[in-house]
Inverse folding.
C-alpha cells in the first residue's frame, strides 16, 4: 500500500467545518485526517470536499467509515460534496451514501448544515 | 503563460492517470450480486440476488482486526506477495473451509462463493465480492446474511528490509444471532482462522516460523439495534434450511429423471 500523499485543510463556518481533501487518500492518511477532524473543533457538521481528490483506494474508504463512527459518537453529521461520478458510484457500492449526506456543491452542504 | 499551460497539461495528465487507475481497480456498481457459475460442492443460495453490506449496515459492535506477518524483503516484494496471495488465496485457508475462487481470479467485481465449517460442524454457505484490487492490495466485501457485514483488505507494504503482509477486517456482526456467536467464542475462532492463513502464507513464502501480530480494536461499542431485521437474510439459518431440504431435493431430482419424456 502506498504512503499517504493527501492533505486535509480545514475551513471553519460556525456550525460546520469544511475539510478540503487533496491528493491520494489511503489507509496511510489516517493521522492527517484525524488531525483535520480535531481541527474542525465543535462544528456540528463535518463537510468533506472531494473536488481535488486524485485517488482513493479501499483503505481510504475504510478510513471514512471510522471517521463516520467517530463523528456519530459525538453527534456530528458527516457530509460530502465534489465527488466525481466515479466516487459517487463507489459510495453507492460500499453503501457509504446511506450514512454520509452527499451534496452537489459546498453551498448546498453548508445550507443543509445550518450555515446561513 | 507557457508555464501555466504546461502545468495545466501536467495536471490533466495526472487526473487521467488517476481516473485510469480507478477504472481498473474498483468494482463496477452493482445493486444485487449475480452468481454465474456454481462450482461443484458450493451453493450460491446466500449470495445470488443479495446486496452488499458494509460495516454501516451491520448490527453488532464495530471491530477492526489487523493480522500482520513480516517477511524478508529480499525474499519477496510487496507486489510479488500480493500476486501470490491472489493466485493461491484458497490454499492458505484452514481445513474445512472452502473459498471457490472466481475462474478469472481475484479481479474487481468478481464474486466468490465460500463454504465454511462453524463450531458444532455446522456448514455455512456464503460468499464475497472483490470490491477493489491493485498490485499491492485487494479487498473483499460481504453480502447481506454473511456472518459479518464489512470488508477485509489484504495488503503488503515494504518497510526497511521487511515486506509486511496484512489482513485487516472492518466489520460488525450482521445480526443479533451472529453477534451472540461472535461474543461466545466466534471472535477467537476468527483470530485462529486468520492466524492460520497468515502463517500458511508466510510458510509458502519460505518463513514457516513467522510470528503473526494481531491487533484488535473496538471502533464502535454501540450495537445498531435498528438492524436486527438483518436476521432475515442470515446465511446460517438459510444454510441450515437448505441442508435440511437436501433429501427432498434429491427425491425430486430422481422423480424428474425417472419421468417418461413426451
Amino acid at each position: 500500500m502506498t504512503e499517504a500523499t493527501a492533505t486535509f485543510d480545514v475551513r471553519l463556518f460556525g456550525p460546520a467545518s469544511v475539510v478540503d481533501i487533496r491528493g491520494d487518500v489511503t489507509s496511510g492518511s489516517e493521522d492527517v485526517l484525524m488531525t483535520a477532524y480535531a481541527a474542525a473543533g465543535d462544528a456540528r457538521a463535518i463537510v468533506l470536499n472531494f473536488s481535488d481528490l486524485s485517488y482513493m483506494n479501499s483503505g481510504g474508504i475504510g478510513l471514512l467509515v471510522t471517521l463516520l463512527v467517530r463523528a456519530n459518537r459525538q453527534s456530528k453529521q458527516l457530509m460530502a460534496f465534489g465527488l466525481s461520478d466515479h466516487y459517487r458510484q463507489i459510495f453507492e457500492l460500499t453503501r457509504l451514501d446511506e450514512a454520509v449526506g452527499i451534496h452537489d456543491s459546498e453551498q448546498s452542504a453548508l445550507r443543509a448544515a445550518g450555515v446561513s | 503563460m507557457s508555464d501555466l499551460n504546461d502545468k495545466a497539461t501536467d495536471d490533466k495528465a495526472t487526473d487521467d492517470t488517476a481516473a485510469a487507475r480507478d477504472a481498473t481497480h474498483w468494482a463496477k456498481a452493482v445493486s444485487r450480486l449475480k452468481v454465474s457459475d456454481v462450482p461443484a460442492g458450493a451453493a450460491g443460495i446466500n449470495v445470488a440476488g443479495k446486496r452488499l453490506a458494509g460495516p454501516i449496515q451491520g448490527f453488532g459492535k464495530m471491530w477492526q482486526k489487523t493480522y500482520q506477518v513480516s517477511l524478508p524483503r529480499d525474499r519477496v516484494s510487496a507486489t510479488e506477495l500480493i500476486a501470490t496471495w491472489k493466485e493461491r488465496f484458497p490454499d492458505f485457508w484452514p481445513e474445512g473451509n472452502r473459498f471457490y475462487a472466481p475462474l478469472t481470479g481475484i479481479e474487481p467485481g468478481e464474486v466468490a462463493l465460500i463454504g465454511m465449517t462453524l463450531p458444532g460442524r455446522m456448514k455455512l454457505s456464503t460468499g464475497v465480492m472483490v470490491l477493489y484490487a491493485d498490485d499491492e492490495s485487494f479487498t473483499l466485501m460481504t453480502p447481506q446474511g454473511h456472518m459479518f457485514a464489512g470488508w477485509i483488505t489484504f495488503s503488503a507494504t515494504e518497510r526497511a528490509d521487511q515486506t509486511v503482509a496484512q489482513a485487516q477486517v472492518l466489520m460488525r456482526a450482521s445480526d443479533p444471532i451472529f453477534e451472540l456467536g461472535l461474543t461466545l467464542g466466534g471472535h477467537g475462532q476468527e483470530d485462529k482462522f486468520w492466524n492460520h492463513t497468515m502463517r500458511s502464507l508466510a510458510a509458502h513464502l519460505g518463513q514457516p516460523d513467522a510470528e503473526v501480530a494481531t491487533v484488535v480494536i473496538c471502533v464502535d461499542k454501540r450495537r445498531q439495534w435498528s438492524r436486527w431485521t438483518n436476521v432475515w437474510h442470515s446465511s446460517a439459518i438459510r444454510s441450515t434450511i437448505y441442508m435440511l431440504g437436501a433429501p427432498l431435493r434429491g427425491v425430486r431430482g430422481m422423480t424428474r429423471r425417472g419421468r417418461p419424456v413426451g
